[in-house]
Amino acid sequence: MTSASNDRAAGNAPLAIEYAPAPESKAVVNIRERYQLFIDGSFVPPLQGGYFPTINPATEEPLAEVALAGEDDVDRAVGAARRAFDEVWSPMPGRERAKYIFRIARIIQERARELAVLESIDNGKPIRESRDVDVPLAAAYFFYYAGWADKLEYVRPGPVPGPIGVAGQVIPWNFPLLMAAWKLAPALAAGNTCVLKPAETTPLSALLLAEIFQQAELPPGVANIVTGAGATGAALVAHPGVGKVAFTGSTEVGKQIQGELAGSGKRLTLELGGKAANIIFDDAPIEQAIEGIVNGIYFNQGHVCCAGSRLLVQESIADEVVERLRRRLATLRLGDPLDKNTDIGAINSAAQLEKIRRLSKTGEAEGGISWSSGCALPERGYWFPPTVFTKVEPAHTIAREEIFGPVLSVMTFRTPEEAVQRANNTVYGLSAGVWTEKGSRILWMAERLRAGVVWANTYNRFDPASPFGGFKESGFGREGGRHGLEAYLER
Ligand code: NAI
Ligand code: MG
User: Fold this and answer.
1) What proportion of the chain, given as a percentage, has pLDDT over 90?
2) Which residue out of 182, 202, 250 has the highest number of ligand 1 atoms within 8 Å of its CB and is therefore the one to mutate?
3) Is 417 annotated as catalytic?
4) Which of 105, 327, 399, 464 is the least buried, fewest Cβ under 10 Å from its Cβ?
5) Enclosing H/E stretch for 184
6) How far apart are CA 129 and CA 228, in angstroms?
7) pTM of this prediction?
8) Which positions ≥6 away from 153 have C-beta within 8 Å?
9) Domains in the chain, start-ordered, CATH in brackets?
10) In terms of Cα–Cα distance, which of 471, 78, 475, 467 is closest to 258?
11) Are the beta carbons of 442 and 456 closer than 8 angstroms?
12) 306 an active-site residue?
């Protein structure tokens, strides 16, 4: 027996397996030097805005230059979307619209490898996740909503609801392709046309999606993509030709948009931050719960609005859970996002890494005890090791603020009532997890948790048929399922 397996037999060392590098080939994707705006079915240069770089966060190397859309470009895109709405897309029978959306879904599947590699390069997420989660789910959302395009009369009782018009959609960088699918698929199925603005650090997969629209022969102007930063997003949201705004991102910007749109008559849905409780009862299947905790907060480097960032453990098993969790975390492999063995990829940007570091320091200063897995961090790029904070009190900053990184705050509870009280003690309300053997307790908890999604004995599971969205400062409106169509239909 090796010393590692001796230790393992003694139950105190991780299962340290050596893996040979297994990098996915970059050759499947052709990254251009420069990307233009996608307006009215063509790639066009910006009228005056210039270009900005997007980088690979795992290496800090520039990947490409991307067009910066100004107000005039946004105006062109909204104009194209309006014409396409009036002349082509909204008069088209739903069963015809469905064919285009199905075609998009099928091409996403055909080009899945290309999309996954590009997503991992631009975003920093492990290829295992982009390949197995982001891309297949993006295809699934298009497939699902394609099926609704000719069935809008069944969305709700009463007269057949019609589309709103042009949807202006602003998305974040944590699931770039998947968020584009969440926004575009229901909007297009309902008969709206779209102008989508991807996040400035992750524009490339949406621009590949634009190529897929061309390949699917989607009529020009039906879906337009304008790249740029906050100012481009703000111009889109403010444009008078936009009838419906959908935003996913920070609570701060979400609140600002809500203020600006008040009284404008524009429809709005917001999907903002979260500080979800992942609640482990003493009768939970512990091994599964440990995996659920890992998936809850370390998936996608914790850049997940519904991440289980507050672990609430029943006091009697808290020490055991934390100990087992540390052992599990010591086995996670951090590094090259394109390596198929990688569990933890790069933090998306220098700014996000700075935020994670700042909040972790605050956590320590306020009395939390921090533990990080001892994994080596690459020299270049943006990295943060999987981290667990114990001795966290509900009043601590790291128990209240969204960190959006691989940092877990552990707290304990004694009774189910206390678990509910602690879980709901947040300004957010997007998601929660409950781990227990008792079905009755799951239902009891789900009734009391103020969260849009409650996962039972699992975490971070998504399905296009299932609505997703928040309470309180996590926003309003639902994406996914029949509910997700409501946002894109006239009242
Ligand atoms: P952000 O809210 O600034 O960015 C999200 C998107 O909104 C991007 O496309 C951005 O260009 C755009 N945007 C920025 N300002 C805008 C404005 N005034 N009008 C219209 N669009 C605007 O978020 P950021 O700075 O990338 O991340 C900050 C924090 O927000 C993160 O640390 C995290 O806590 C949270 N966040 C939450 C997300 C979620 O999924 N709920 C996603 C991204 C960030
Ligand atoms: Mg990037």
Assistant:
1) 95
2) 250
3) no
4) 327
5) helix 176-189
6) 26
7) 0.96
8) 160
9) 26-272+474-486 (3.40.605.10), 274-456 (3.40.309.10)
10) 475
11) yes
12) no
